[in-house]
Amino acid sequence: MKRKGLMHGADYYPEQWLSRPDILKEDIRLMKLAHINTVTLGVFAWSALEPQEGVWDFTWLDQMMDTLYENHISVILATPSGARPAWLAKAYPEVLRVSEDRKRNLYGMRMNHCYTSPAYRRLVREIDERLAKRYGNHPALKAWHISNEYHGECHCPLCQNAFREFLREKYGTLEALNKAWWTGFWSKTFTDWEQIESPSSRGEMALQGLTLDWKRFVTKQTVDFMRREIETVRAYAPSVPVTTNMIGSFIEVDYPKMAPWLDVAALDCYPQWGGGPDYEIAMDAGFEYDVTRSLKKSPFWLLETTPSLTNWPAVGKPKGPGIHVAGCLQAIAHGSDSVQYFQWRKSRGGYEKFHGAVVGHYGHEHTRVFRETARLGEILENLGEIEGTKTISQTALLYDWNNRWAIEGAKGPRQDKFYEETIREHYRALRRYGVNVDVIDEEQSLEGYRLIAAPMLYLVKEELPQRLMQFVQAGGVLLLTYFSGITDENDLCFQGGFPGPLGELAGVWAEELDLLYPQERGGFCCTGESLPGEGRWSCRDYCEVIHAREADVEACYTSGWYAGMPALTRHRIGKGEVWYLAARAENDFLLLLYGRLLERAGAAYIPGGLPKGVTLCTRCGQKERYLFYTNWNGQPVTVEMPEGEEMLRTGEAKGEQGSMDPLETVILKQKLQ
Ligand code: GLA
Ligand code: ZN
After folding, report:
1. Atom 3, ligand 1: residue with shortest CA distance
2. How close is the Cα of 257 to the center of ligand 1, in Å?
3. Would you name the residues annotated as active-site residues?
4. What is the DSSP letter of 122?
5. Is residue 270 in contact with ligand 1, taking CB distance under 6 Å?
6. By C-alpha distance, which of 602, 550, 607, 554 is closest to 576?
7. pLDDT by residue (tens digit) across 261-319?
8. Model pTM?
9. How many other C-beta atoms are found inside a 10 Å radius of the C-beta of residue 15?
10. Cβ–Cβ contacts within 10 Å for residue 339, how many?
11. At what angle do helices 368-382 and 323-333 cross, to 10 degrees?
């Protein structure tokens, strides 16, 4: 169904209720009350569609598709490969995943099949084909939802062979592989491809080149499996968009490798809000949205979140009043064109019977959760013109899956690397200035950015330094930090000093890396011309000892044997500059630094930053710009806002310009000249 406007809906599992036509009827009435315009059908519906091998039953789905269409509700139809029927596992045991300790799983759970198994691929193709043939042209169909949260790995003999094939293709010869994996150490030289096994706690855990290639293989195999599903449905419905629900920054799957095959990037996101407003949680959720949006640099879909609680944390606290509306509008602010939930109606039994849903076990609409959901639905209906509008970012954070894997997998120089925390610290500092932030990997385009921050760029892909150099020469500002330029794509250390191929950009060389104990703190102060000289700043965990070769010194250490040596440098190249931060500086310093970097980069930002606890995101249409402000503080706050038509205010207008209540969202609309 080609509907304009933002989507609002839920995963709908009518197959749970086929013996209750009264409930299915009531669902439609309630969906209308909740302003639901799109539902996802068929995730995990395999056994309802094919109760026995070769025995098909589409009657319930036919009826559902028709009924939803008649009621003006679109359908995102899933392929059911995320969970297989018991008969299938019994008939084809090869589909059962083998864990890293080489034990084959028994039947059970879900999302745990072998991605290589020809039998599974054939059976999936068959059911996908039937769905596509039957519903590809159904007027209710809005998009395909391919499988569910692809993730995990299988170590079965079929996967081992496919892994060896992958390695053969990549390296050509064992000699090249041995060189790349540095197998001369600890007598690990391979003399036959058959000797190579995937990493295992019972076997090889120490060969980082192998581990990295295994992770790349797992992504490749997952993407390959997904592509076959996509090809199958596309063959019958070429113009229906295709997506899959990713999990934001989830480390297992290299999502930038998955995204090119999708029409729309989508994610599931379950911020653990707790009972009240929480700026930190909002920042973490915002990061996930930005990761997903940046995959295609286009609007994305939020395909799952909860209307109230999740059942999997230690304590599954329901969202307190007002959080649902604010939290879901935040996804829209970051570029989502949808808010979808898991799930529509609570299951009576099974694993997720206590998970939040729009309709609870009581089965009616007279609940706080339902009311807040309906309210959001109404708001989204009125924001229809925002659909398709873009997020334009002048700043980007480099966040690459290979880099994450390599840092995480490196034995030392300290075991807690704090990479993920560091990325989020930098993200938060940038966000305080009210700028949109793209989160990109090392291969994505750098076009359009004025400031790129690349904290802890440990693994450097071959072409990146050259691309960054072009970016800087053309006027861009780049921030690099300690523990960067350490290894190449095979996790082999660069020879001739760190930061390896980034040295020319940074204009410094790093001689040593001092690592601080958890309670230990270092210090530095600003000595250069760019930042105010007062104050001594604290740093922790990493203090790199660097020498400024061509760079200007902006700050010096006040602690350690390296006191007086540079802690922050600036290197002018062409029209731009590269800053190098040698220590893990405290957050207040990052805030100061980013204010300066945004200014140097000539980016549009709010000098002095937003009030603490307030977020701002913008989306741009052809003629309008939309500014989304939210107050995540527990108390009201005054926010200076530019001129613009007030399109939405979720709190009460107080007459006092710019005052926002806790969890209040304001959307301003400005005409673009
Ligand atoms: C994931 C799954 C859903 C559901 C939710 C619960 O996102 O895709 O099927 O299990 O978690 O939070
Ligand atoms: Zn396998």
Report:
1. 342
2. 23
3. 149, 304
4. H
5. yes
6. 602
7. 999 999 999 999 988 999 999 999 999 999 999 999 999 999 999 999 999 999 999 99
8. 0.98
9. 18
10. 28
11. 30
